[in-house]
Write a structure and sequence with these properties.
10 helices, 311 residues
């Protein structure tokens, strides 16, 4: 009897120990998973064309905060329904986005929710919430590699500019010739041949001196303009008298031009009166004829002066 009681006592103690261990594990599981048994939750349902490996238990983030988990995913005829439970309500507005993104570089997925612009209108209750088709990085990388391979094949086949450079002997020879011509030009510059070569070959500092003198002259002109010296300086400095003098000169020139155009004065009559122009032309011709007669008679006059001067 005592042995039987001892065995029963041991079994009861083992049972109590295992029960305590299970209770403790349950408490730690709840604490570590941050789940609150009696906290109010908000269920939501999203519709995706595909979810790229999103699984039950993955986290849901809003504005960078973990606000819930994925409860269930159901594959239907043309889409996937994702059921989530959140700790706080969503206020989705027009322009919202629900994305399936990578949880880390090591893998895993999470649901990222953008509620939309603050000034946008909120969604009507009962609206189907659509998720954005996720970007599969592996698939995109495969497309990139395939495109790169296509480009390499095209180059190897001699297609395109790069392919022709690698395959076309004529282009290669032209490139070699251009390189040789360029080396020849550089050699001539180093020897001081040509205008540019002579400029580069100057070692007496004359080019530097001339450039410095030119810059000094520009500085002097700039300083004079800044001090208001000269006509341009006075005009740039806002001298009213200089503006008035310039305006008076322009007015006088305009008046003279208008008088000439209207035929006033000798110059105006010459410009406008055709008869006076013809008379002036005849007078010039007469004068030229008289000068020619005097030039022809000059030897006779000189001979007569010498002859009669002897007596």
């Amino acid at each position: 009897m005592n042995k039987y009681r001892r065995e029963v006592s041991i079994e009861i103690l083992v049972g109590l120990f295992m029960f305590t261990v299970l209770i403790t594990l349950g408490v730690f599981t709840i604490v570590l998973s941050s789940e609150k048994l009696f906290e109010k939750t908000y269920p939501y349902e999203f519709v995706f064309s595909e979810i790229s490996g999103l699984r039950e238990g993955d986290n849901v983030y809003v504005r960078g905060m973990n606000v819930g988990r994925v409860n269930q995913t159901d594959l239907e005829k043309s889409h996937v329904r994702v059921y989530v439970t959140l700790k706080s309500p969503l206020y989705l507005r027009q322009g919202y986005k629900i994305d399936v993104v990578d949880s880390s570089m090591l893998g895993g997925k999470k649901l990222k929710i953008y509620e939309g612009p603050n000034e946008a209108q909120e969604l009507v209750e009962g609206t189907t919430i659509l998720g954005t088709k996720p970007v599969d990085m592996i698939e995109e990388l495969a497309y990139a590699v395939a495109g790169f391979q296509t480009m390499i094949d095209s180059v190897n086949a001699g297609e395109g500019t790069l392919g022709k450079l690698l395959k076309d002997e004529a282009i290669h020879e032209n490139m070699v010739k251009i390189s040789e011509d360029l080396m020849s030009v550089i050699s001539r510059l180093e020897k001081g041949e040509g205008s540019l070569g002579q400029l580069l070959a100057l070692d007496d500092g004359q080019l530097y001196t001339d450039g410095k003198m030119f810059m000094n002259n520009l500085r002097i002109i700039s300083d004079n303009l800044a001090r208001g010296q000269g006509i341009m300086g006075r005009l740039m400095s806002g001298d009213e008298k200089a503006f008035q003098d310039l305006e008076a000169s322009i007015t006088a020139i305009r008046s003279i031009s208008e008088r000439i155009n209207s035929g006033e004065g000798t110059l105006g009559r010459l410009v406008r009166d055709a008869k006076l122009y013809d008379e002036a032309t005849l007078l010039v011709e007469d004068i030229r004829a008289a000068v020619d007669d005097l030039r022809e008679a000059s030897p006779i006059t000189s001979f007569g002066s010498v002859l009669f001067g002897a007596f």
